[in-house]
């Protein structure tokens, strides 16, 4: 295997394994910053050795074993050997090469879920909780997190550094909280899982249109959380939303990896099992007898698409009404942009364009590529092709996803094609 090929393979493995690795190490050393450093050390060793020796059969276990040895060396240097060795001895069975994956896939005892609650510690601001958890569990770069937040990369980097320091100083317990704490942290935990799924569903950068493995990890965490907090409707709402969105994976790109937009997808490829699971989760949320929150409302919107056999059957008037309800419980310029799309589909592109134009001056959307993308689509439908081409080119200049940029540039070219 060439070093370049090995490097790409190792990068892919790291994306998958790093959250589990950091979660397990955090429980061992009780310091998320130190755990990330140890995990990075293991990655460096892998980058040095694997191109020569080949990828191990169980790369996650190899990385954990290597990082664990580094942790033991560190503990020895810090002269806390006796106390820490006793602790490591009690949990060392979690990290044998034979059963590491199975042990890391437990129920509420899952290290990943414990780490989510730990990084959502009350000592941190809400913004810091989300950024840190996305960094450690989602494996996202600071640049990707900044794109998800529509925030400067330097701001996110500083936020993550301060969060690690705060957790270390607070000696935050790496355990699933008890009593009232789960409910107090639940809002942020849900936000973290939601943003993790969104980054997987449409990658903010790189050459892939989406990252199914990141979506699957977010969905797995959401399902686990639904078991933990079964009386919380928003947990079921988020799970429903992710189940239905994930059902579209096979239809979202063609054989060349090019994006296929929702209204053009072959709905026969949608996963009906995931749709049924999503619809059942919505019913569980509604059955709890409380008003629907943001996630349950978004899941209801997704359900409207899932229940339409053909794109033309979509109940856009209901979707527009659901976005109106969503804008009341979760005011956001992005929600308003989506509502404008729904209104354009229900009542005509001119109505939608009027709403989109009103969003042009919103600061949070200034660098948001979907604003000019939506505007270009509406202008195209109104046969204002020159303006549409300009809008699509503007959108292409803002996105950092290569596949999405190619799609937007193709749409700009179609606007300029006299045919």
TrEMBL record:
Q: Where is the DUF6596 domain?
A: 185-285
Which Pfam families does the record match to this protein? Answer: DUF6596, Sigma70_r2, Sigma70_r4_2
- Gene Ontology MF term list: DNA binding; sigma factor activity
Please list the residue ranges annotated as the RNA polymerase sigma-70 region domain.
Answer: 19-79
Task: Outline the extent of the RNA polymerase sigma factor 70 region 4 type domain.
Answer: 116-167
Q: Name one GO biological process term.
A: DNA-templated transcription initiation
Q: Which domain of life is it from?
A: Bacteria
Identify the PANTHER family for this entry: BLL0085 PROTEIN, BLL6612 PROTEIN-RELATED
Please report the name of this protein according to its UniProt entry. Answer: RNA polymerase sigma factor
Q: Which organism is it from?
A: Paenibacillus soyae
């Amino acid at each position: 295997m060439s070093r370049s090929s090995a490097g790409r393979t190792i990068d892919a493995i790291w994306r998958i394994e790093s959250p589990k690795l950091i979660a397990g190490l955090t429980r061992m050393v009780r310091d998320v910053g130190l755990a990330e450093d140890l995990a990075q050390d293991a990655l460096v060793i892998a980058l040095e050795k694997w191109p020569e020796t080949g990828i191990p059969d169980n790369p996650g276990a190899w990385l954990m074993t290597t990082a664990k040895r580094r942790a033991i060396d560190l503990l020895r240097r810090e002269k806390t050997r006796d106390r820490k060795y006793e602790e490591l001895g009690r949990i060392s069975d979690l990290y044998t090469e034979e059963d590491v994956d199975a042990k890391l896939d437990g129920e509420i005892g899952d290290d990943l879920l414990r780490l989510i609650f730990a990084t959502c510690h009350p000592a941190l601001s809400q913004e810091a909780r989300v950024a840190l958890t996305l960094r450690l569990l989602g494996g996202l770069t600071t640049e990707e997190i900044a794109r998800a937040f529509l925030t400067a990369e330097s701001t996110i980097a500083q936020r993550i550094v301060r969060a690690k320091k705060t957790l270390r100083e607070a000696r935050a317990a790496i355990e699933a909280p008890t009593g009232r704490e789960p409910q107090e942290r639940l809002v942020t935990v849900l936000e973290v899982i939601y943003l993790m799924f969104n980054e997987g569903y449409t990658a903010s950068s790189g050459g892939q249109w989406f990252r199914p493995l990141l979506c699957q990890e977010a969905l797995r965490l959401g399902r686990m959380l639904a078991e933990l907090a079964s009386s919380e409707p928003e947990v079921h709402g988020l799970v429903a939303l992710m189940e239905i969105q994930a059902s579209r994976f096979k239809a979202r790109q063609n054989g060349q990896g090019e994006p296929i937009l929702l209204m053009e997808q072959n709905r026969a490829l949608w996963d009906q099992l995931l749709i049924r699971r999503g619809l059942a989760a919505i019913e569980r949320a509604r059955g709890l007898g409380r008003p629907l929150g943001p996630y349950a409302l978004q899941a209801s919107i997704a359900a409207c698409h899932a229940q339409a056999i053909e794109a033309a059957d979509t109940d856009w008037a209901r979707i527009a009404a659901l976005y109106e309800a969503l804008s009341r419980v979760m005011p956001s310029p992005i929600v308003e942009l989506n509502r404008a799309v729904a209104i354009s589909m229900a009542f005509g592109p001119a109505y939608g364009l009027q709403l989109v134009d009103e969003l042009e001056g919103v600061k949070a959307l200034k660098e948001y590529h979907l604003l000019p993308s939506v505007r270009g689509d509406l202008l195209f439908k109104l046969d204002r092709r020159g303006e549409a081409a300009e809008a699509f080119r503007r959108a292409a200049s803002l996105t950092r996803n290569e596949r999405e940029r190619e799609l937007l540039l193709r749409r700009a070219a179609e606007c300029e094609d006299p045919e």
